Amino acid sequence: MIKIGIIDDNVQFTELLKDILSTINEMKVIGVAHNGMEGMELIEKKKPDLIILDLIMPFSDGLSLLKNIYEESITTKVIMLTSIGTDEIITQAKELGASYFLMKPIELSNLPNMIMSICSDSVLQKTTLEKKIHNTNNDDKLELKISDILRSIGIPANLKGYFFLREAIQMINNGSDISFSKVIYPAIASKYHTTPSRVERAIRHAIEVGWNRGGIEQLDFIFGNTVSPLKGRPTNGVFIGFIAEHLMLQKGMEIGSFTTV
């Protein structure tokens, strides 16, 4: 969705422009301003992807607003409109970052395609970056939750198996193939420059330490009646699977049974 701001002192023209752009599914007019001061406030508060900016306006003209945008390194794209475009003004507008300079009266039917052309790459990059940030934040939160569970069970952070366990649980929680010998152990081994068999043994050792040191109440909370200190230690796959499932259930998610290949 391309977010658009309209800054023009002609009220009838802004209403017409808003009506036309509002019919385009990929676009949304998020604000209208009728002078440069209101326009700068609109840009700062609503952060449009693109503004349609008139050159001549009261209080602060289009070039002054464009200069503010340029000096503050605002990435909003600009289509500038005018009825008195000289070569000098056009050159100045381009130097200040205007994407297009259109002479009034403009052909409104061509405007949506022009906006799509200007914004397609920048909006895609912005969306991709937002997703990456969101995913990174989610991964950080998940890692903290896993760390809290492992420590509460009694697995100390100085063990290699602690880090390997955390990686394995995170992989499953993020939808990785749950074949331990074919996918998870080799992936962790590659990341930590070791071998899959050493990863398996380190995880096994960490589970044994935690099972001997962990509180029964915490073990029961995560594993329920399926396993307990009295029934013996679970396999690597069962241990990792139950913690991953515990985390998913906390988020209201459902997962199928885990294999322990």
From TrEMBL:
Pfam families: Response_reg (PF00072), Spo0A_C (PF08769). Keywords: Activator, Calcium, Cytoplasm, DNA-binding, Metal-binding, Phosphoprotein, Repressor, Sporulation, Transcription, Transcription regulation, Two-component regulatory system. SUPFAM superfamilies: C-terminal effector domain of the bipartite response regulators, CheY-like. It comes from Neobacillus niacini. May play the central regulatory role in sporulation. It may be an element of the effector pathway responsible for the activation of sporulation genes in response to nutritional stress. Spo0A may act in concert with Spo0H (a sigma factor) to control the expression of some genes that are critical to the sporulation process. Repressor of abrB, activator of the spoIIa operon. Binds the DNA sequence 5'-TGNCGAA-3' (0A box). The lineage of its organism: Bacteria, Bacillati, Bacillota, Bacilli, Bacillales. Binds 1 Ca(2+) ion per subunit. Residues 3-119 form the Response regulatory domain. It is found in: Cytoplasm. NCBIfam families: spore_0_A (TIGR02875). Ca(2+) binds at residues 8-9, 54. This is Stage 0 sporulation protein A. Its main location: cytoplasm. One of its GO terms (cellular component) is cytoplasm. GO terms for biological process: detection of stimulus; regulation of sporulation resulting in formation of a cellular spore; sporulation resulting in formation of a cellular spore. GO terms for molecular function: calcium ion binding; DNA binding; DNA-binding transcription factor activity; phosphorelay response regulator activity. Transmembrane segments: none annotated. Its cofactor is Ca(2+). The modification 4-aspartylphosphate is found at residue 54. The keyword Amino-acid biosynthesis does not apply.
